[in-house]
Fold:
Amino acid sequence: MTDEKTWLQATLTDKIPMARAMGVQIERLDDIGLCISLPLAPNINDKGTAFGGAMSSAMILAGWSLPRLLLRRAGVVADLVIGRCEVRFLAPVDGPFQTLCLWPDETACKAFLADVQAGRRGRLALEPHILHNNQQCATLAARYTALPSTA
Amino acid sequence: MTDEKTWLQATLTDKIPMARAMGVQIERLDDIGLCISLPLAPNINDKGTAFGGAMSSAMILAGWSLPRLLLRRAGVVADLVIGRCEVRFLAPVDGPFQTLCLWPDETACKAFLADVQAGRRGRLALEPHILHNNQQCATLAARYTALPSTA
Structure:
């Protein structure tokens, strides 16, 4: 998945200026999921901890990345957007942190792709979270929708 | 409110690097609420529209600003954190955008301050949204909590 990792890192930091400003770095991409690491400094708030918007953005990016990779693997051209999400902030983060997103189960991934390939909207729910010192500090429950190209 | 506007602008962009990177600019602060404007370029995504994380972050900042001002007006020292929120993305944003947050009703604001002044946690619900071309493009429902200083 070295090629995928390189492609995803470039997609995030070359095409999304905020991801670059946040210093997102793909740490791991494998059969389990995706782990992105972030430094505290560019993501800090007035209290010296990670800004809620930065944690939300990191999780939104991590969640978006997995269905994006599914589309790429299947050679499907489709815009992938987030429809709604719920964020819970559980504990302050006072140092570098990670966002981890596990692959959804295979049935959900297959149904997502099948819908898009049939020209319908494909939907996939993802639940990335923020880790700091091995503690879960924030969670996101998000639904992403792939919009098949009408071209 | 010129002094407040200056103070809030400095708080956001001097203490929160992401707010600076996003180019947040307080456009209006009055008895109705707060309006922050943002350029598209630093907040763009791979599709040429506003990144969901940027819109979420802008709304989180707008929502946070109002109880922060209530605390400042009352001379209360307290950390103000976001506990949970729900974001709905309604329409793509392909140009400069604004985030608008209205003041909650006076009863809610007074109860929030009374709790903090009594040494309890003060909670306030806020519902900022994103505007682009006079259209509501995203909404946030968030609950903020003021944690009284234990010092």
Summary: DSSP finds four helices and seven strands in chain B.
